[in-house]
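Consider one such protein record:
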Amino acid sequence: MRQHALLRLLLACFLFYVAWPSVQVQNHTIGSFFWMTWLVFLFMVMGANLAILLKLPVQVEYEEEESTKEKEFSLGKN
């Protein structure tokens, strides 16, 4: 899994390297909107793959709090 994330990260960096000269040349509004959208998507992909490589845990505290409230309600405060 980590090897795949590293390969995807390297591919994203390569695509960023190839696309960077074209990003700086844009003069039209539609072209700049396209590149801005493309860069946002690229950084989301890079962030997701970095999270996989660094093994950042997903926080699920909301579900745990909800289950404890349900237990308190069902235990006897009726």
